[in-house]
Amino acid sequence: MSQPTVNLTETVHSAIDAHRHERGPLLVILQEVQERLGYVPPAAVPLIARELNLSRADVHGVLTFYHDLRTEPPGRTTLSLCRAEACQAVGAEALVAQVEEALGVKTGQTAADGSVTVNQVFCLGNCALGPSALVGGRLHGRLDRDRVVALVRAEAS
């Protein structure tokens, strides 16, 4: 995947300037960079570290600790499958395996063609209608393999 067309240095400095005055601003800066670029490019780590007087390891540690932060661009469609207990009780584990096979993408990865990123989440608050998932940011319940694949394809078109 290629680097974003937006100026990385400008984006990082803008996020830092907006939050430098806050106590412990690293996480919110990383979130803002991701919001603007879609992910936090590895090249942003030394810029942020230098400006906040942190080590690269400190920045990298926070970036890789939080599952919602990405160091690579997401797919054009993002699928987040719920794996919490209520969804597990109605077949979420089997659904995850079926969807991974149908889409050819493992949880936590992006398809080679950049079409879809498959994530896992642990509760979407849709427990009565499990198994549930977010497809392109929209919540869906009572899912099966065919419905998930259809939703992903519809989102991609």
From TrEMBL:
Pfam families in UniProt: 2Fe-2S_thioredx
Swiss-Prot/TrEMBL keywords: 2Fe-2S, Iron, Iron-sulfur, Metal-binding
For activity, the cofactor(s) needed are: [2Fe-2S] cluster
Q: Keyword Metal-binding on this protein?
A: yes
Q: Which domain of life is it from?
A: Bacteria
Where is the secretion signal located? Answer: none
**According to its UniProt record, which protein family does this protein belong to?**
Belongs to the complex I 24 kDa subunit family.
Q: Give the NCBIfam families listed for this entry.
A: PRK05988.1
In Swiss-Prot or TrEMBL terms, this protein is called Formate dehydrogenase subunit gamma
What is the species listed in this Swiss-Prot or TrEMBL entry?
Streptomyces polyrhachis
